[in-house]
Specification:
The chain is an alpha+beta fold and 185 residues long. The chain has one domain: Gcn5-related N-acetyltransferase (GNAT) (Aminopeptidase). The protein is built from six helices and eight strands; from the N terminus they run E-E-H-H-H-E-E-E-H-E-H-E-E-H.
């Protein structure tokens, strides 16, 4: 990440994740408020996260950033791309807002826009896609405001706690960068 990715209006910036973020990420991902919105809902461990860093981040299959408060540098959550496919120039998007006081105030939307700008400008990716649980209306609305569009609806696609759940498939494509181009530098 060579550029500066900040949004003055939302009061956030992105920085690359460091080893010092491990305990915070594990704690955030294990809260019910965060975990309930993920397809993978198993509890995280320090060892599991360190393995993720070693096998995914260090190998270039993942770029994970920390969303920070612009005024205080306080970490608020994480936004990342995973399964980076250099042949087809695409990756899967993910985000979570770990701090309860940062939820519901546009941090996720702003972070998504910043990450899309990074993906298209620095990673030279063509397509960023995501999967969201269909009942997570707040996240889906945030993704749409950031520039993602709905592409599909997958009925009973995942089984969580013995219950089949529907998935909304969304994507943002580099050539459709209207939302990204409006971002402040």
């Amino acid at each position: 990440m060579t550029g500066t990715y900040k949004d003055e209006q939302a009061g956030i910036y992105l920085r690359l994740m460091t080893p010092e973020d491990t305990d915070r990420i594990v704690a955030w991902r294990n809260t019910d408020a965060v975990r309930k919105n993920f397809i993978y809902q198993e509890l995280f461990t320090r060892e599991g996260h360190e393995r993720w860093v070693h096998t995914m981040v260090e190998t270039g299959k993942v770029v994970q950033t920390i969303i920070c408060d612009l005024a205080t540098d306080k970490p608020l959550g994480s936004v990342y791309i995973r399964d980076i496919d250099r042949h087809h120039n695409k990756a899967e998007y993910g985000i979570f807002i770990g701090e309860a006081d940062a939820r519901g105030r546009g941090v996720g939307t702003a972070a998504a826009k910043l990450m899309l700008r990074y993906c298209f400008a620095e990673e030279h990716l063509h397509r960023i896609y995501l999967r969201a649980l269909s009942d997570n209306a707040q996240a889906i609305g945030s993704y749409e405001h950031a520039g993602f569009v709905r592409e599909g609806y997958l009925k009973d696609d995942v089984c969580i706690d013995g219950v089949y759940r529907d998935i909304v498939w969304m994507a943002a494509v580099a050539k459709d960068t209207a939302a990204v181009e409006r971002l402040p530098e």
